[in-house]
Protein backbone atom coordinates (compact mmCIF):
# COMPACT_ATOMS: atom_id res chain seq x y z
CA UNK A 1 0.00 0.00 0.00
CA UNK A 2 1.03 3.62 -0.24
CA UNK A 3 3.66 4.45 2.34
CA UNK A 4 3.43 7.36 4.77
CA UNK A 5 5.30 10.54 3.99
CA UNK A 6 8.95 10.56 5.01
CA UNK A 7 10.96 13.73 5.70
CA UNK A 8 13.46 14.32 2.90
CA UNK A 9 15.32 17.31 4.26
CA UNK A 10 18.77 15.71 4.69
CA UNK A 11 18.89 12.10 3.59
CA UNK A 12 16.36 9.51 2.57
CA UNK A 13 15.59 6.59 4.81
CA UNK A 14 17.23 3.33 3.73
CA UNK A 15 15.06 1.22 1.43
CA UNK A 16 13.05 -1.76 2.49
CA UNK A 17 14.42 -4.85 0.75
CA UNK A 18 12.90 -8.19 -0.21
CA UNK A 19 15.59 -10.56 -1.53
CA UNK A 20 14.56 -14.13 -2.31
CA UNK A 21 17.99 -15.37 -1.27
CA UNK A 22 16.82 -14.77 2.30
CA UNK A 23 14.22 -17.55 2.15
CA UNK A 24 14.08 -21.20 1.16
CA UNK A 25 13.82 -21.98 -2.55
CA UNK A 26 10.27 -23.29 -2.29
CA UNK A 27 9.17 -20.06 -0.55
CA UNK A 28 10.86 -17.66 -2.99
CA UNK A 29 7.93 -16.78 -5.25
CA UNK A 30 5.48 -16.29 -2.38
CA UNK A 31 8.03 -14.08 -0.63
CA UNK A 32 8.40 -11.99 -3.78
CA UNK A 33 4.62 -11.71 -4.09
CA UNK A 34 4.33 -10.51 -0.50
CA UNK A 35 7.13 -8.02 -1.11
CA UNK A 36 5.67 -6.30 -4.15
CA UNK A 37 2.21 -6.14 -2.56
CA UNK A 38 3.77 -4.37 0.43
CA UNK A 39 5.91 -2.09 -1.76
CA UNK A 40 3.18 -1.24 -4.29
CA UNK A 41 -0.55 -1.88 -3.93
CA UNK A 42 -2.17 -5.34 -3.98
CA UNK A 43 -0.98 -7.15 -7.13
CA UNK A 44 -1.16 -10.72 -8.39
CA UNK A 45 2.17 -12.00 -9.77
CA UNK A 46 1.74 -15.21 -11.74
CA UNK A 47 4.14 -17.97 -12.79
CA UNK A 48 3.53 -21.66 -13.53
CA UNK A 49 3.84 -23.57 -10.26
CA UNK A 50 6.60 -25.80 -11.61
CA UNK A 51 8.79 -22.72 -12.24
CA UNK A 52 8.29 -21.04 -8.86
CA UNK A 53 10.87 -22.88 -6.76
CA UNK A 54 14.09 -20.88 -6.58
CA UNK A 55 12.47 -17.82 -8.13
CA UNK A 56 15.11 -15.09 -8.13
CA UNK A 57 14.17 -11.49 -7.37
CA UNK A 58 15.21 -8.41 -5.40
CA UNK A 59 12.86 -5.53 -4.55
CA UNK A 60 14.14 -2.24 -3.11
CA UNK A 61 11.34 0.07 -1.92
CA UNK A 62 12.25 3.73 -1.35
CA UNK A 63 9.87 6.01 0.54
CA UNK A 64 8.90 9.16 -1.34
CA UNK A 65 7.27 12.37 -0.04
CA UNK A 66 4.10 10.45 -0.90
CA UNK A 67 3.89 7.01 -2.42
CA UNK A 68 6.97 4.90 -3.10
CA UNK A 69 9.68 4.26 -5.68
CA UNK A 70 10.39 0.57 -6.16
CA UNK A 71 13.33 -1.03 -7.94
CA UNK A 72 12.50 -4.57 -9.06
CA UNK A 73 14.89 -7.15 -10.54
CA UNK A 74 13.37 -10.56 -11.21
CA UNK A 75 13.01 -13.52 -13.50
CA UNK A 76 10.36 -13.12 -16.17
CA UNK A 77 6.75 -13.56 -15.05
CA UNK A 78 3.34 -11.89 -15.32
CA UNK A 79 1.74 -9.40 -12.93
CA UNK A 80 -2.01 -8.76 -12.85
CA UNK A 81 -4.08 -6.08 -11.18
CA UNK A 82 -7.46 -7.55 -10.27
CA UNK A 83 -10.77 -6.00 -9.19
CA UNK A 84 -10.14 -7.39 -5.69
CA UNK A 85 -6.72 -5.69 -5.59
CA UNK A 86 -8.26 -2.40 -6.69
CA UNK A 87 -10.93 -2.65 -3.99
CA UNK A 88 -8.27 -3.31 -1.33
CA UNK A 89 -6.17 -0.24 -2.25
CA UNK A 90 -6.42 3.01 -0.27
CA UNK A 91 -6.49 5.49 -3.19
CA UNK A 92 -6.08 5.69 -6.98
CA UNK A 93 -2.50 6.06 -8.17
CA UNK A 94 -0.46 6.23 -11.35
CA UNK A 95 2.34 3.76 -11.93
CA UNK A 96 5.26 5.46 -13.71
CA UNK A 97 7.73 2.80 -14.89
CA UNK A 98 11.28 3.31 -16.14
CA UNK A 99 12.37 0.12 -17.92
CA UNK A 100 16.03 -0.89 -17.54
CA UNK A 101 16.10 -4.51 -18.77
CA UNK A 102 13.58 -6.82 -20.42
CA UNK A 103 10.44 -5.87 -22.35
CA UNK A 104 7.21 -5.19 -20.49
CA UNK A 105 3.94 -5.63 -22.40
CA UNK A 106 1.29 -3.52 -20.65
CA UNK A 107 -2.38 -4.37 -21.32
CA UNK A 108 -5.07 -2.06 -19.95
CA UNK A 109 -8.42 -0.61 -21.09
CA UNK A 110 -8.31 -2.52 -24.37
CA UNK A 111 -4.88 -1.17 -25.32
CA UNK A 112 -1.40 -2.68 -25.30
CA UNK A 113 2.03 -1.12 -25.50
CA UNK A 114 5.53 -2.45 -24.99
CA UNK A 115 8.16 -0.76 -22.85
CA UNK A 116 11.73 -1.33 -23.99
CA UNK A 117 14.86 -0.47 -22.00
CA UNK A 118 15.23 3.28 -21.60
CA UNK A 119 11.51 3.97 -22.08
CA UNK A 120 9.08 5.37 -19.51
CA UNK A 121 5.45 4.29 -19.32
CA UNK A 122 2.39 5.21 -17.28
CA UNK A 123 -0.68 3.15 -16.38
CA UNK A 124 -3.55 3.31 -13.92
CA UNK A 125 -3.77 1.53 -10.55
CA UNK A 126 -7.55 1.94 -10.59
CA UNK A 127 -8.12 -0.21 -13.68
CA UNK A 128 -7.43 -3.89 -14.31
CA UNK A 129 -4.12 -4.49 -16.09
CA UNK A 130 -1.61 -7.20 -17.02
CA UNK A 131 2.16 -6.79 -17.21
CA UNK A 132 3.77 -9.46 -19.38
CA UNK A 133 7.56 -9.81 -19.14
CA UNK A 134 7.75 -13.22 -20.83
CA UNK A 135 9.69 -12.19 -23.97
CA UNK A 136 12.97 -11.91 -22.06
CA UNK A 137 14.55 -14.10 -19.39
CA UNK A 138 14.45 -11.35 -16.78
CA UNK A 139 13.45 -7.79 -16.03
CA UNK A 140 14.66 -4.73 -14.18
CA UNK A 141 12.41 -1.73 -13.68
CA UNK A 142 12.04 1.33 -11.45
CA UNK A 143 8.37 1.94 -10.70
CA UNK A 144 7.02 5.08 -9.06
CA UNK A 145 3.69 4.73 -7.28
CA UNK A 146 2.19 8.23 -7.40
CA UNK A 147 -1.22 9.21 -5.94
CA UNK A 148 -3.39 10.72 -8.67
CA UNK A 149 -4.33 13.71 -6.51
CA UNK A 150 -0.71 14.93 -6.83
CA UNK A 151 -0.91 15.25 -10.65
CA UNK A 152 -2.66 18.36 -11.96
CA UNK A 153 -4.32 16.69 -14.98
CA UNK A 154 -5.68 13.33 -16.06
CA UNK A 155 -4.65 10.85 -18.75
CA UNK A 156 -6.92 8.99 -21.13
CA UNK A 157 -7.64 5.34 -20.16
CA UNK A 158 -4.97 2.80 -21.02
CA UNK A 159 -1.17 2.71 -20.92
CA UNK A 160 0.95 5.60 -22.20
CA UNK A 161 4.57 5.66 -23.34
CA UNK A 162 5.62 8.93 -21.71
CA UNK A 163 9.07 8.89 -23.27
CA UNK A 164 7.40 9.28 -26.69
CA UNK A 165 5.77 12.58 -25.76
CA UNK A 166 6.82 15.08 -28.46
CA UNK A 167 7.38 17.95 -26.01
CA UNK A 168 8.04 16.46 -22.56
CA UNK A 169 9.27 12.94 -23.40
CA UNK A 170 12.98 13.52 -22.91
CA UNK A 171 12.46 15.63 -19.79
CA UNK A 172 10.21 12.97 -18.26
CA UNK A 173 12.76 10.25 -18.99
CA UNK A 174 15.63 12.22 -17.47
CA UNK A 175 13.55 13.25 -14.44
CA UNK A 176 12.53 9.63 -13.79
CA UNK A 177 16.16 8.48 -14.05
CA UNK A 178 17.39 11.29 -11.78
CA UNK A 179 14.75 10.44 -9.17
CA UNK A 180 15.76 6.77 -9.23
CA UNK A 181 19.48 7.51 -9.02
CA UNK A 182 18.97 9.97 -6.18
CA UNK A 183 16.91 7.46 -4.21
CA UNK A 184 19.54 4.74 -4.75
CA UNK A 185 22.24 7.08 -3.39
CA UNK A 186 20.13 8.02 -0.38
CA UNK A 187 20.02 11.67 -1.48
CA UNK A 188 17.14 14.10 -0.81
CA UNK A 189 14.60 13.59 -3.60
CA UNK A 190 11.61 15.78 -2.68
CA UNK A 191 12.58 18.34 -5.35
CA UNK A 192 12.99 15.70 -8.06
CA UNK A 193 9.67 14.15 -7.05
CA UNK A 194 7.99 17.55 -7.48
CA UNK A 195 9.64 18.09 -10.88
CA UNK A 196 8.38 14.74 -12.15
CA UNK A 197 4.86 15.46 -10.88
CA UNK A 198 4.88 18.82 -12.67
CA UNK A 199 6.05 17.27 -15.94
CA UNK A 200 3.35 14.60 -15.73
CA UNK A 201 0.72 17.29 -15.30
CA UNK A 202 2.06 19.18 -18.30
CA UNK A 203 2.15 16.03 -20.43
CA UNK A 204 -1.41 15.10 -19.46
CA UNK A 205 -2.61 18.61 -20.24
CA UNK A 206 -0.90 18.60 -23.62
CA UNK A 207 -2.51 15.26 -24.46
CA UNK A 208 -5.94 16.90 -24.48
CA UNK A 209 -4.87 19.24 -27.29
CA UNK A 210 -3.43 16.91 -29.93
CA UNK A 211 0.18 17.70 -30.74
CA UNK A 212 0.89 18.87 -34.25
CA UNK A 213 2.11 16.30 -36.80
CA UNK A 214 5.66 17.66 -36.88
CA UNK A 215 5.95 17.51 -33.08
CA UNK A 216 4.65 13.94 -33.12
CA UNK A 217 7.14 13.04 -35.85
CA UNK A 218 10.09 14.50 -33.95
CA UNK A 219 8.96 12.80 -30.75
CA UNK A 220 8.83 9.44 -32.52
CA UNK A 221 12.30 9.88 -34.05
CA UNK A 222 13.65 10.72 -30.59
CA UNK A 223 11.95 7.69 -29.03
CA UNK A 224 13.07 5.18 -31.67
CA UNK A 225 16.52 6.56 -32.54
CA UNK A 226 18.47 3.86 -30.70
CA UNK A 227 16.73 0.96 -32.42
CA UNK A 228 19.10 -0.62 -34.96
CA UNK A 229 17.79 -0.55 -38.51
CA UNK A 230 14.83 1.72 -37.70
CA UNK A 231 14.07 3.37 -41.04
CA UNK A 232 12.06 6.05 -42.80
CA UNK A 233 9.52 3.40 -43.81
CA UNK A 234 9.22 2.21 -40.19
CA UNK A 235 8.69 5.78 -39.04
CA UNK A 236 6.00 6.43 -41.65
CA UNK A 237 4.21 3.18 -40.80
CA UNK A 238 4.06 4.03 -37.09
CA UNK A 239 2.64 7.46 -37.84
CA UNK A 240 0.17 6.13 -40.40
CA UNK A 241 1.44 8.40 -43.18
CA UNK A 242 3.63 7.91 -46.26
CA UNK A 243 7.44 8.23 -46.30
CA UNK A 244 7.03 11.20 -48.64
CA UNK A 245 4.82 12.94 -46.06
CA UNK A 246 7.49 12.35 -43.40
CA UNK A 247 10.12 13.97 -45.58
CA UNK A 248 7.77 16.82 -46.48
CA UNK A 249 7.10 17.59 -42.79
CA UNK A 250 10.83 17.70 -42.02
CA UNK A 251 11.60 19.70 -45.14
CA UNK A 252 9.31 22.44 -43.82
CA UNK A 253 12.10 23.11 -41.29
CA UNK A 254 14.96 22.47 -43.77
CA UNK A 255 15.57 19.06 -42.23
CA UNK A 256 15.54 15.46 -43.40
CA UNK A 257 14.90 12.06 -41.86
CA UNK A 258 18.50 10.79 -41.94
CA UNK A 259 19.83 14.03 -40.43
CA UNK A 260 17.19 14.12 -37.69
CA UNK A 261 17.78 10.46 -36.80
CA UNK A 262 21.56 10.96 -36.70
CA UNK A 263 21.24 14.00 -34.41
CA UNK A 264 19.12 12.07 -31.91
CA UNK A 265 21.50 9.11 -31.90
CA UNK A 266 24.55 11.29 -31.41
CA UNK A 267 22.87 13.31 -28.65
CA UNK A 268 22.05 10.08 -26.83
CA UNK A 269 25.65 8.90 -27.27
CA UNK A 270 27.00 12.21 -25.95
CA UNK A 271 24.92 11.85 -22.77
CA UNK A 272 25.97 8.23 -22.30
CA UNK A 273 29.66 9.05 -22.75
CA UNK A 274 29.47 11.65 -19.95
CA UNK A 275 27.30 9.48 -17.67
CA UNK A 276 29.34 7.96 -14.79
CA UNK A 277 27.01 4.96 -14.81
CA UNK A 278 28.16 4.18 -18.38
CA UNK A 279 31.89 4.67 -17.73
CA UNK A 280 32.53 0.92 -17.92
CA UNK A 281 31.15 0.61 -21.46
CA UNK A 282 33.61 0.86 -24.37
CA UNK A 283 32.93 3.45 -27.04
CA UNK A 284 32.25 0.66 -29.54
CA UNK A 285 29.50 -0.71 -27.29
CA UNK A 286 27.91 2.72 -26.92
CA UNK A 287 27.92 3.08 -30.71
CA UNK A 288 25.90 -0.12 -30.97
CA UNK A 289 23.62 0.93 -28.09
CA UNK A 290 22.54 4.11 -29.92
CA UNK A 291 21.70 2.34 -33.16
CA UNK A 292 24.94 2.35 -35.19
CA UNK A 293 25.84 -0.98 -36.73
CA UNK A 294 29.53 -0.04 -37.14
CA UNK A 295 31.72 2.00 -34.74
CA UNK A 296 33.69 3.70 -37.55
CA UNK A 297 30.78 5.70 -39.05
CA UNK A 298 29.70 6.52 -35.50
CA UNK A 299 33.12 7.99 -34.64
CA UNK A 300 33.19 10.06 -37.84
CA UNK A 301 29.67 11.38 -37.31
CA UNK A 302 30.32 12.14 -33.64
CA UNK A 303 33.49 14.10 -34.40
CA UNK A 304 31.73 16.07 -37.14
CA UNK A 305 28.87 16.96 -34.79
CA UNK A 306 30.77 17.63 -31.53
CA UNK A 307 34.24 18.60 -32.73
CA UNK A 308 35.93 15.80 -30.75
CA UNK A 309 36.27 12.05 -31.11
CA UNK A 310 34.06 10.11 -28.65
CA UNK A 311 36.97 9.16 -26.37
CA UNK A 312 38.08 12.76 -25.84
CA UNK A 313 34.49 13.86 -25.35
CA UNK A 314 34.12 11.23 -22.62
CA UNK A 315 37.23 12.58 -20.83
CA UNK A 316 35.82 16.11 -20.93
CA UNK A 317 38.54 17.47 -23.22
Can you walk through the features of this model?
This protein is α+β, with helices and mostly antiparallel strands and 317 residues long. It folds into 2 domains: 16-208, Jelly Rolls (Sandwich), CATH 2.60.120; 213-314, Arc Repressor Mutant, subunit A (Orthogonal Bundle), CATH 1.10.10. 39% of the residues lie in helices and 21% in strands. The protein is built from 11 helices and 12 strands. It has helices at 28-39, 83-87, 169-185, 190-208, 213-224, 232-239, 243-251, 257-274, 283-289, 295-306, 310-314; strands at 16-19, 44-46, 57-63, 68-75, 78-81, 93-101, 104-108, 111-115, 120-124, 129-132, 138-147, 160-161. The chain has a 7-stranded antiparallel beta sheet with strand order 1-3-4-11-6-9-12, sandwiched between helices. Strands 2-5-10-7-8 form a 5-stranded antiparallel beta sheet. A hairpin with a 2-residue loop joins strand 7 and strand 8 (111-115). Helix 8 (257-274) crosses helix 10. The termini are far apart. The model is unreliable at 1-10 (pLDDT under 50).
Global shape: globular
What share of residues are in beta strands? 15-25%
In the CATH classification, which architecture of the largest domain applies? Sandwich
Question: What percent of the residues sit in helical stretches (DSSP H or I)?
Answer: 25-40%
Low-confidence stretches: 1-10
Structural class: alpha+beta
Number of strands: 12
Q: Any idea of the CATH topology of the largest domain?
A: Jelly Rolls
Spatial order of strands in the largest sheet? 1-3-4-11-6-9-12
Counting structural domains, the number is 2
| Top-tier CATH class of the largest domain | Mainly Beta
**Rounded radius of gyration (Å):** 21 Å
Report the biggest beta sheet as strand number plus sense, adding barrel if it closes: 7 strands, antiparallel
Amino acid sequence: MTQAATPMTEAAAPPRIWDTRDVRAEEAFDYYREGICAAFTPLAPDLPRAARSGFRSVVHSHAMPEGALNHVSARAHQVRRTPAGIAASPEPCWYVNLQFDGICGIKQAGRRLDLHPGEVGLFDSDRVFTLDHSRRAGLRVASLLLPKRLVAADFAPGPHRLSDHPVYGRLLTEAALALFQGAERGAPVAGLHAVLRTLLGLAAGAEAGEAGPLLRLRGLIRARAARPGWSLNDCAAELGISPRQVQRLLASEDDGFAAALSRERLALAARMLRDPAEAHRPVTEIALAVGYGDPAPFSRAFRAAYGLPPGLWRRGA
